[in-house]
């Protein structure tokens, strides 16, 4: 038996249910629209993207110019620091040269006698001899006749040496003062250059700030003018819409304009104004007939399903009876087989007893097997 497939018609929704579903769909669409409008990444209305891109480009150019200027100033500072380091090295080299020349001068101009006297004085101080001038004649082994001329010549030489040393010190002092003056002038020049660079940087920053302020002011003015022109355009469009609403045949609800010229029973799709009372009544009547037809089809389908269920129940009961009969037959066969096995067992036991009693008259007793394995003594 093959089951007949029937399609069940869907129940017609009421007008209130359809209106409720329409309102829910409208709310869902409005929620999605609000989320989309409030997303700043997707919403581009109300933003001047060209002005923002131009500002970003100007800012990048300004940062690049500042970076290049800072690099140039850093290179200039490094060069000036290197020059100052070289100047310090030259000054130190000049001082060492002056000290070397002074030592060479002393070495060349110092007389051997003065050096010898200094060494003897140091020697006398080391060995602890008497420093009394009255005992110095003991070192000459006699009277020194040229002591006055020698002393006078020594005093004159000392005076000349003092004058030369003072002159050399004065020249060294003047050279050092000149070197310090040159260093101060160079340091002042470096400071002036750095100060000028800092002032120029401040002036450039002030000029850029003023340019940015002027650009922002012009941007605000342009935005206000654009907003004003937009409002004027919106007002103009609103007036045109009001005029069109008042004069348009589509919005004046003239039903005579909705029928087709070639077929008075059909309406123009784009001029449809809605149904009249008779048309609505005819549509409602048609819907009522459709509902009755669907109800009749549903009743017919229900009756057919009931008949199908009854037939299925009959088949199920017949199958149950057949299954019971089959089980009873199997049980009878099992009992017959058990009876046959029981009779076979009984027959076998009778044959065994007959063999033990009638055929084998002298059977071996258990004592015969117990005698094996025992001693003969």
Automatic annotation (TrEMBL):
Residues 230-239 have a biased composition (Basic and acidic residues). Its main location: cytoplasm. Signal peptide: none annotated. Keywords: Cell projection, Cilium, Coiled coil, Cytoplasm, Cytoskeleton, Flagellum. Residues 226-245 are annotated as: Disordered. InterPro entries: RIB43A. It is found in: Cytoplasm, Cytoskeleton, Flagellum axoneme. Residues 277-332 form a coiled coil. It comes from the Eukaryota. Pfam families: RIB43A. Belongs to the RIB43A family. Microtubule inner protein component of sperm flagellar doublet microtubules. This is Uncharacterized protein.
């Amino acid at each position: 038996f093959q089951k007949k497939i029937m399609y069940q018609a869907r129940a017609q929704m009421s007008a209130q249910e359809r209106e409720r579903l329409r309102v829910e769909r409208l709310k869902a669409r409005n929620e999605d629209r609000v989320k989309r409008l409030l997303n700043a990444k997707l919403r581009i209305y109300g933003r001047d993207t060209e002005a923002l891109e131009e500002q970003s480009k100007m800012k990048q150019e300004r940062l690049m110019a500042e970076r290049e200027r800072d690099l140039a100033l850093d290179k200039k500072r490094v060069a000036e620091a290197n020059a100052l380091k070289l100047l310090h090295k030259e000054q130190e080299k000049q001082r060492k040269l002056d000290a070397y020349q002074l030592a060479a001068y002393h070495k060349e101009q110092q007389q051997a006698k003065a050096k010898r006297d200094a060494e003897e004085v140091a020697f006398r101080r080391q060995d602890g001899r008497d420093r009394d001038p009255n005992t110095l004649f003991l070192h000459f082994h006699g009277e020194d006749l040229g002591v006055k001329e020698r002393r006078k010549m020594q005093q004159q030489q000392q005076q000349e040496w003092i004058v030369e040393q003072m002159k050399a010190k004065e020249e060294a002092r003047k050279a050092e003062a000149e070197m310090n003056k040159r260093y101060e002038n160079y340091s002042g020049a470096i400071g002036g250059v750095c100060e000028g660079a800092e002032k120029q940087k401040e002036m450039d920053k002030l000029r850029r700030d003023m340019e940015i302020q002027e650009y922002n002011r012009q941007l605000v003015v342009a935005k206000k003018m654009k907003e004003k022109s937009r409002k004027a355009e919106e007002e103009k469009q609103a007036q045109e819409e009001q005029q069109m609403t008042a004069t348009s045949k589509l919005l004046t609800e003239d039903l005579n304009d909705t029928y087709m010229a070639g077929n008075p029973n059909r309406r123009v799709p784009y001029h449809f104004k809605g149904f009249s009372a008779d048309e609505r009544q005819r549509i409602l009547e048609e819907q009522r007939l459709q509902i009755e037809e669907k109800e009749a089809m549903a009743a017919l389908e229900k009756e057919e399903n009931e008949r199908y269920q009854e037939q299925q129940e009959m088949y199920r009961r017949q199958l149950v009876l057949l299954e019971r009969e089959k089980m009873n037959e199997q049980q009878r066969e099992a009992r017959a087989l058990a009876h046959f096995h029981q009779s076979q067992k009984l027959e076998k036991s009778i044959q065994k007893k007959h063999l033990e009693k009638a055929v084998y008259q002298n059977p071996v007793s258990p004592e015969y097997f117990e005698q094996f394995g025992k001693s003969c003594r």
